Amino acid sequence: MQTSDAIQMFEQINQILKLVPEEQLTDAFDYILKAVKQYVSEREHQPKAPQKRKVTTLDFKVAPCDLELLSEMDTMKLRSFLKSSDYFTHKMKLQALVQQIGIPFTKKQTKEDLLNLIVQHYQMHRMDSMIKTHQTHLEPIEIKIGSE
Questions:
Q1: Cα torsion at 83, 88, 93, 95 (round to 10°)?
Q2: What is the pLDDT of the chain when averaged over all its residues?
């Protein structure tokens, strides 16, 4: 309890003391004590409102087939899908996706930051796969150094 709260309570007690004659003070305090006890017991017996369950990022998982579909989308389509999708309406769901993909992130990052991380991740993987497939189709070139 803060000092200002205690001062306010003492002022209310002082007002009660001023209103009630001295010979009736004991009865007045008994009455107040009974009222407070009744108030407390009624509060204890009232049904409590159900507590909302705290949602964590671990509660959301994207199916592997959906991850594969995301990897096949081009950049613009992927970004618009993540922004407009009914599934990714909350930042926590995007955090779950980022976590599932394996991208490091912080809780302070905005929804837009998370979208950028996901899009960049899939862009890098597409570039890597393009480079790897292009390298396997190249034929070795023979380079001769010097004069013959």
A1: -20
A2: 78
